[in-house]
Write a structure and sequence with these properties.
Elements (H helix, E strand, L loop, with lengths): L22 E7 L5 E12 L3 E6 L4 E4 L2 E4 L4 E6 L4 E6 L6 E15 L5 E15 L3 E5 L1 H10 L4 H19 L7 H16 L1
């Protein structure tokens, strides 16, 4: 644990070998050390972009003071490198198609019974591809506000801003791993997991 914050730091960026279907809990924090969203999922595998999880409909998605059951299936991509975590939605009835959380201090640690936890610090900015609103950068006001109140280092702010611009370009350009063509393989793996 960090001496300054409550979230775990210096965790390995990539995990050891994980079995197909293993439980992986995605746990986000805020920079001031307070807990943020927790979303369970199941491990699908990895490719050149990162580790893919299946987050099934009906899963409990919770943070302090808020909770809901996921309405649709989703894929979660934890990249090998980079300052983000992406959620890619399967159901065309879901308005979100791509939702990327700009993130810091991404790291993995094992839990009991061959399950894993992947931790990250949510840095407010989100790159969103919405079926109704197009592709845009969200929560810039929150980023500026928290940058002051939580004392984000200037170097970290610059890194997150640069990453958000790169991600906007990639999503608008329908580039892998965010394209439907790339995610199709992982949707099929998720289907295998649900049917096993």
């Amino acid at each position: 644990m960090s001496a300054l914050h409550n979230f775990p730091t210096d965790l390995p960026r990539n995990p050891e070998t994980i079995s197909f279907g293993a439980l992986v809990v995605a746990r986000a924090w805020k920079y001031n050390g307070l807990p943020h969203w927790v979303v369970p999922g199941f491990y699908l595998g990895e490719d050149e972009f990162g580790h893919w999880l299946h987050q099934p409909a009906g899963s409990l998605v919770a943070r302090p003071g808020a909770a809901h059951l996921a309405q649709t299936h989703a894929l979660c991509l934890i990249p090998h490198e980079g300052s983000w975590v992406a959620t890619l939605y399967e159901d065309p009835r879901e308005d979100f198609d791509v939702y990327i959380d700009l993130s810091h201090a991404i790291g993995w640690r094992p839990l009991s019974q061959e399950s894993w936890e992947v931790n990250s610090v949510d840095m407010d900015l989100d790159v969103i591809q919405s079926r109704s609103r197009g592709t845009f950068l969200d929560d810039e006001d929150e980023f500026e506000e928290h940058g002051t109140s939580m004392q984000y280092p200037e170097e970290l702010k610059d890194k997150i801003r640069a990453a958000s611009e790169q991600l906007l370009t990639a999503v608008r350009g329908d580039e892998a791993p965010f394209s439907h063509a790339h995610r199709q393989y992982w949707l099929e793996k998720a289907g295998q997991l649900r049917n096993s």
